[in-house]
Design a protein that fits this description.
With about 500 residues, the protein is an alpha/beta fold. It is built from 17 helices and eleven strands. α1 runs parallel beside α13, α8 packs across α9 and α16 crosses α17. The longest helix has 23 residues.
Length: about 500
């Protein structure tokens, strides 16, 4: 950190690219394609409003004359009525069913699993790391934005660590069942009522699967539609929600549960390669369980309605594919390697994602400015910078995946956000660390605990993951949302926001 509290500028390969420099037109077209798919609805609503307005101004004599006229045009009346019935039926059959988020629960580990800095380094010394690797981990921790109360699994507290399959299963059960117990208790939903189950965990995929472990534990019904997503990284939570939404369009009147977690026990790296040591310093225990439904009767108690999901996959690019890569080092020790190009690749994926998302969520004035400057630059070759829309006009709250301090810093800068908009991400990183795909739910819980989520507010969840992927989910609050009885922030939220590595956040 520079003198005067200014943040040091990271090297170019560690920064997101400047979005002002280029925007790919084909992704703008994709966003507008999504907009046009809802054109019929947007067109019919004003027409209906005009008809109702004209009808309200019609006197009884006009109605009588119209009735007499129609009596002599029976064929036309029947044809028009049939057309109206057909149009209404087609609209009702093709419109997507609304998906409601009834509630969600985040896992809160027990206090004895906390890993303060010094304890982390002390345990690392007995794991065979050389002095350079230990010093590197210490520096990463000091700059990471993590606090002293993050959690690591039981097996990593043992001396020496015990990364066995049994302990990995125990960690998975503790996190998943802890989330689900709280979810069922808070909603009153019986496990037998669940029709769809989607579980995502990137690095631990035993046989039987994690979803099968849940089915066995809670004795879910035999015809449940269960899915287990593996290897999809920290953005898999949004992918799981998107999959559940699609399934809820097909299966009527049912509930879907999404469980997002990551497993650390068998994925701790015990070598000395620096690019593979970073995950040890950032990833911590956590998980979330989300209850979704397409039952309209649940809307009155649901917290949110799912508005949009936008998924971006850069796997066709070799650099993007390998920037987060599980492999063995030169001594045959397995870990996840992070490329120096990670931030640049993340920036490219983000640029594509928000370019597609923009037409779906931005006010018309922002879309017009954005699209007009883009056309002038791309079509007429004007030497002007593309207009970067103000996403603060589209969203009230931002849940940016707490992957690390650098990611949050760069998104805050490139999306022109205020410190209050990234406070939930910074505080989640400080309190719980990088909990992978579940971090966006800890962030949402933070904003609820602060009493900031009001009816009608829009929430943008955005996450990055290996592959390389950038995925977004947009939610609309259906009521004023307060802190839940089982919130992971209960008992500690009053201590936040706190001083982080390079800034102080304030506000409640």
């Amino acid at each position: 950190m520079r003198a005067g509290g200014e943040r040091a500028t990271p090297p170019p390969h560690r920064r997101l690219p400047d979005f002002l420099q280029s925007v790919n037109l084909k992704y703008v077209k994709l966003g507008y394609h999504h907009l046009i798919t809802h054109f019929l609805t947007l067109l019919l609503l004003p027409m209906i409003a005009v008809v109702l307005l004209e009808a309200s101004q019609t006197d009884p004599n006009d109605v009588y004359e119209l009735w007499m006229h129609l009596q002599f045009n029976l064929v036309g009346v029947v044809a028009l009525s049939g057309l109206l019935v057909f149009a209404c039926t087609l609209y009702l059959l093709t419109r997507p069913r609304p998906v409601f988020l009834v509630d969600y629960a985040c896992f809160l580990p027990e206090d004895h699993l906390k890993a303060p800095y010094e304890e982390f380094i002390t345990h690392s010394k007995v794991c065979g790391f050389d002095d350079a690797a230990l010093e590197f981990q210490r520096k990463i921790l000091e700059r990471s934005g993590l606090g002293e109360e993050t959690y690591v699994p039981e097996a990593m507290h043992a001396i020496p660590p015990q990364p066995s399959m049994a302990n990995a299963r125990a960690e998975a059960e503790q996190v998943m069942f802890g989330c689900l117990d709280n979810l069922f208790a808070s909603t009153g939903i019986k496990p037998k009522d669940i029709g769809i189950l989607v579980v995502n965990c990137s690095l631990f995929n035993p046989t039987p699967s994690l979803s099968a472990m849940i089915v066995n534990k809670y004795k879910l019904r035999g015809n449940i539609k269960s899915y287990n997503l593996g290897g999809m990284g920290c953005s898999a939570g949004v992918i799981a929600v998107d999959l559940a939404r699609d399934l809820l369009q097909v299966h009527r009147s049912t509930y879907a549960v999404v469980v997002s977690t990551e497993n650390i026990t068998q994925n701790w790296y015990f070598g000395n390669k620096k690019s593979m040591l970073i995950p040890n310093c950032l990833f911590r225990v956590g998980g979330a369980a989300v209850l979704l439904t397409n039952k309209k009767s649940e809307k009155r108690r649901a917290k949110y309605e799912l508005v949009h999901t936008v998924r971006t996959h850069r796997g066709s690019d070799d650099r993007a594919f390998r920037c987060v890569y599980q492999e063995q080092d030169g001594t045959s020790k397995t870990g996840v390697s992070l490329s120096k190009d990670l931030m640049a690749i993340a920036g490219e994926a983000l640029k594509i994602n928000i370019t597609t998302l923009g037409p779906l969520v931005l006010p018309f004035s922002e879309q017009l400015l954005f699209f007009s400057t883009l056309v002038l630059k791309k079509v007429f070759k004007f030497k002007i910078k593309p207009y970067i829309p103000d996403f603060k006009l589209a969203f009230d709250h931002f849940c940016i995946h707490a992957g690390g301090r650098a990611v949050i810093d760069e998104l805050e800068t490139n999306l022109q956000l205020e410190p209050i908009h990234v406070e939930a991400s910074r505080m989640t990183l400080h309190r719980f660390g990088n909990t992978s795909s579940s971090s966006i739910w800890y962030e949402l819980a933070y904003m609820e605990a602060k009493g900031r989520v009001r009816k009608g507010h829009r929430v943008w969840q955005i996450a990055f993951g290996s592959g390389f992927k950038c995925n977004s989910a947009v939610w609309k609050a259906l009521r004023n949302v307060k802190m839940g009885e089982r919130s992971p922030w209960r008992g500690c939220v009053d201590r936040y926001p706190v001083l982080t590595v390079d800034r102080v956040l304030s506000g409640n």
